């Protein structure tokens, strides 16, 4: 009996001895899990900005080569206060929104036709894949010659760049509906339009939003590419002008604005995804992490 008590006591003593060792480790893991991902990302970003500022000032790097973050912020504030950067940002933003909207319309209509009609799938999809293999940077000068230096050529360039990833995701989404569910709706007399509206389209929303997330970032890239080729306004045009004048701080300021536009549009897509595709846990967790 004493031996049993000794065993129990010794076991308790061992557990108590191990307890202080286990608790800090568990608390550390719990603390890491409680820290949001964006806090870690922004913390690392601020550290890198601080190192950038320190290195530029410590080694007296020329502002023509690499400006300090403080110089970039000063140039950004001056450009916004004068309205110079705001005018060019608005010109680029209009091109992005119109081109992105055009890409959405073309992709959804094309995906609907391809998934509903086998002959369209066989005839149209190979042509679209062939067009996608053509570098859009090579298409931009042609669009400029055909449609002029105005907004039309920029919008079409953006739409072409953003179109294909959205098309592919839309096709995958519309084809993701379960055949058993389609057969059940048909057995109840549902038309193809009703099946599309009630089943195929809701099933496709997670895939469509995944395509939107990619396409909206590509739209920003497409706007800059189009303005590089030929423009009289816009942030891409401003980058070329400031590079020609060797105003590197203003060039960095424009890059910051482009990043803000891209992140804002990405956040809008993620928020809409969270509201509309609330039944997809993986997408919700992804949106929460961002």
Automatic annotation (TrEMBL):
InterPro entries in UniProt: MetI-like, MetI-like_sf
Gene3D superfamilies: MetI-like (1.10.3720.10)
Subcellular compartments: Cell membrane
Segments passing through the bilayer: 37-55, 96-115, 127-149, 155-174, 204-231, 251-276
ABC transmembrane type-1 domain location: 89-269
Keywords: Cell membrane, Membrane, Transmembrane, Transmembrane helix, Transport
Pfam families named in the record: BPD_transp_1
GO CC entries: plasma membrane
Biological process annotations from GO: transmembrane transport
Nucleotide-binding among keywords: no
Membrane topology: Multi-pass membrane protein
Family: Belongs to the binding-protein-dependent transport system permease family.
This protein's name: ABC transporter permease
